[in-house]
Structures are given as structure tokens and as C-alpha cells.
From TrEMBL:
It comes from the Bacteria. Belongs to the phD/YefM antitoxin family. SUPFAM superfamilies: YefM-like. Antitoxin component of a type II toxin-antitoxin (TA) system. This is Antitoxin. InterPro entries: Antitoxin_Phd/YefM, YefM-like_sf.
Amino acid sequence: MTITTLSSRELNQDVTRAKRAANSGPVFITDRGKPAHVLLSIEEYQRLTRQRRNIADSLAMPDVADIEFEPPRVTIGTQPADFS
């Protein structure tokens, strides 16, 4: 994987170069010398976002009924507020 860094000005002057570079790895786009954005290929973006599944998606998976999951019960106690 190749990491490319371009300034905002370089990106504006040669978008095609940035798109080609994104096929080989992330392209960091800087504003005033500091990283501000990252350009990724759609395949890389989809790969990264597929790994982060929320709990609702996980519970909706097929065969989820076969998974044993019994979290421990938690009792949350209350305390009177001290306004002194």
C-alpha cells in the first residue's frame, strides 16, 4: 500500500493524479500543511466500513438465534443528591 500526500492546491490542479494514487492506497490531502482529508478508492472504503457493524445489524444476521449470549444482570443503585 502506497500512501500519497497532496496539498489542497495540488489536488485542485491534478484531480486525476489523486484518483490514480487512491487506487494504490490512501491519499492524504493537507490544508496549510496539516492533514485535513483522506481520499480512498470505493473498494477500500467499503472494506473499512464493512468491518464496523452496529449491534442492530449484528442481531439481524442469519443464524443469530444459534449464538448463546447471556449478559450479566446489572443493578444500578441510586443515591440521594447532596445539595449542601
